Amino acid sequence: MMSTRKTGSALYFIAHLVIACLVLLPLLFAFASSFRPLTEIFRYVSPFSWRTFIPTELTFEAYTSLFAARGFGRIFLNTFFVTFTTVIVGVVINSMAAFAFAKFEFRGKQLLFLLVLVTFMIPFEVIAIPLYNLVDQLGWIDSYTGLIVPGLANGLVIFLFRQFFMDLPTMLLESAHVEGASWTTIYTKIVMPLSKPVAISAGLLLFLFQWESFLWPVIATRSKQYKVIQVAMSDFVTEHATYWNEMFAACTLVVLVPVLVLLPLQKYFVQGVTGTGIKE
C-alpha cells in the first residue's frame, strides 16, 4: 500500500514537473531573448544548451527601443486607461444588473437572463461587424468611448454576481427597505460591501478580457493616438523582417502586468469563483 502511494506521488510530481516545464520554458526563453541583440535570438536554439535561456551578451536595446522609438509609453497609458475604466464602470453596471436579476421580480426576467447567458457563449467574431456598425453610427469609432463601452456589459460577470446575490438573505434586504432605506442605499451600503470576493473576481475577469483584447481594438481604432498594447505588438512583424527581441520584450511586459495584478488578489479570486455555485 505504501509502495503504491509513493509511486502515485512520484507520478503526480513528474506530471506536474513536465507541465511546469512546458509552460515556463517558453516564457523563460522569451524573457532571456528580450535582453539579446536581434542577431543573437535564435543562435543558441540548436543545439539546445544553457545558453538558450541565459543571454551571453546582455543588452537593454529592445526595451529602450520600445519606449524611445515605438512610443510604448503612450500605448501602455492607453491600455491602462481603457482597462481600468472598463473594470471600475463594468463592476458597477454588471453588479446592478445582477442585483435586479437576483432580488427583483419583473416580466420577462427569465428570458432576459437567458439572453445574458447566451451573450458569453457566442464568439465575439460573430457580433464584431454588427457591433462595428452600431458604434460607427454613434460616432464612437477611433475614440476611447468606442474602446471602453462595448466591453462594459459582460454576461459571465453578471452571472457570477447574480449567483452570489441569490445567496444573500432576502429578509435582510427587505427589512432595510421597510426601515426606510432606498434600494440604492441597500445596494451601496449592504450588498456591495458583502460582495468583496466576487467583485474582485469580476474585476479581474474584466481586466483580463480588456487587457488581452485584440480584434475589437483593431476594428474600432485607426490612429496611433488610441492604439493599445495588443495591437501595437503586431507592428513587430513587417514585410521584410520580424523584430523578435522587441516582440519578446513587449511580451514580457504584457505578461508581467496581469501577474502583478493577479498574485496579490488570487485569494479573493478563488473565493469569488467558488462562492458563486450554480444554485436556484
Tell me about this structure.
The protein is mainly α and 280 residues long. The protein folds into 2 domains: 2-62, no CATH class; 70-274, Orthogonal Bundle (MetI-like fold). Helices cover 69% and strands 0% of the residues. The radius of gyration is 24 Å and the shape is globular. The relative contact order is 0.13. Its main location: membrane. It is found in: Cell membrane. InterPro entries: MetI-like, MetI-like_sf.
Key terms:
280 residues; MetI-like fold; 13 helices; globular
Low-confidence stretches: none
Task: Give helix and strand order, one letter per element, not per position.
Answer: HHHHHHHHHHHHH
From the 3D coordinates, which CATH architecture of the largest domain would you assign? Orthogonal Bundle
Oligomer: single chain
Proportion of strand residues: under 5%
Tell me, what's the shape?
Answer: globular
Percent of residues in helices: 55-70%
Counted beta strands = 0
How many domains? The number is 2
Helix-strand layout with pairing:
Layout: H1 2-33, H2 61-68, H3 72-103, H4 109-119, H5 124-137, H6 144-148, H7 155-166, H8 170-178, H9 183-194, H10 196-211, H11 215-220, H12 229-232, H13 244-274
Can you describe this structure in just a few lines?
Belongs to the binding-protein-dependent transport system permease family. Residues 76-266 form the ABC transmembrane type-1 domain. The chain is mainly alpha-helical and 280 residues long.
